[in-house]
Amino acid sequence: MAVVRGPFQAGEKVQFTDRKMNKVTFQLVPGGSTQTEHGHILHDQVIGRSEGTIVNTVPSPHGQEGSGRRMGGWAYCAMRPRLADYVLSMPRGAQIMYPKDIAQVIQLGDIRPGMEVLESGGGSGAMSLNLLEAVGEGGRLITIELREDFARICRANAQLFYGHQPDWWTMVVGDFDRKAEEWEDDSFDRIVLDMLDPWNRLNQAYRLIRPGGVLISYVTTTTQLSRLSETLRESGHWTEPDISESLERTWKADGLAVRPNHQMIGHTGFMVVTRAMAPGFAALFKRDRPSKDTHADIDLKDDMEKLQLRDISDRKTRKVLRDLDLQTSRLNSGS
């Protein structure tokens, strides 16, 4: 995105933050106004002013007498939104990836300027915007989105962010496997999958990615994580998957009162990162001693008694039982 400096212009997105750190983001329109919890922000008071200025709300003409909406006089600081701010505030249909996860995709996927990247699952465009920024105008991004309505949302959010449709981006609507057939072998440096069944797309992904290219997949459940990891290993075409998740916790620092905030962004998804082997070479894996039934499917068991899980040793079990017997006997003696 071109760097924007100077006074705010009509058509720009502006983020307003009050003293309680509540944020509201909207597009400036000549003669327009935006309602907040403390009155209206008049857009004409913002257009032509610089970032970092303070604007005060005016009373809402249609608010109830004595309500906070009618009060006015509430101060907001005006700034251009960062990309992370824009992503969290933009209109969306599908659930977006959080900035903490997007940052991991860019960093762990080693996505850099000039690269050719294939993305499957555009959604509302949060990941697409960051990929466009990462590869830059010298690179290329192809996004395959199954649903036409999501593709429209994705395109519109990108157009609002850039002010135009990026010419280094192509949006394709349709099924991943069918659309992937339109590209030749070894067409992409990186592939990003954000979909329900990425394990079903690995054959086409391997054909399209260059040897050594990075495949990074975002999944939200442990069931998806297990299925994808095992399929990657079984294929032999991909290196041992590197699996991680990120947790985000903000802190409060007020004099000597320094503590974490009570709320945090916990689990949102897993990142599965792997690299493509050269044709004719199988991936190397660590040879672990197999554990009983770690790869068994419970649904396929005819007799549940044969499962015999060994998550805890027999010796440890006997010790736990001795301790419990002792503690329960004390209860009887105490009564």
Please give a structural write-up.
This protein has 335 residues and is of the alpha/beta class. The chain folds into two domains: 12-62 and 71-81, Vcp-like ATPase, Chain A, domain 2, CATH 3.10.330; 84-276, Vaccinia Virus protein VP39 (Rossmann fold). Helices cover 28% and strands 25% of the residues. The chain contains nine helices and 15 strands. It has helices at 68-71, 83-89, 99-108, 126-135, 148-162, 176-180, 202-208, 222-235, 314-334, and strands spanning 13-17, 23-27, 33-36, 39-42, 53-56, 75-79, 116-120, 140-145, 169-173, 188-193, 209-219, 242-244, 248-254, 257-265, 270-275. It has a seven-stranded mixed beta sheet with strand order 9-8-7-10-11-15-12, sandwiched between helices. It starts with 12 loop residues before the first strand and ends with a helix. One of its GO terms (biological process) is tRNA methylation. Catalyzes the S-adenosyl-L-methionine-dependent formation of N(1)-methyladenine at position 58 (m1A58) in tRNA. Its EC number is 2.1.1.220. One of its GO terms (cellular component) is tRNA (m1A) methyltransferase complex. It catalyses: adenosine(58) in tRNA + S-adenosyl-L-methionine = N(1)-methyladenosine(58) in tRNA + S-adenosyl-L-homocysteine + H(+).
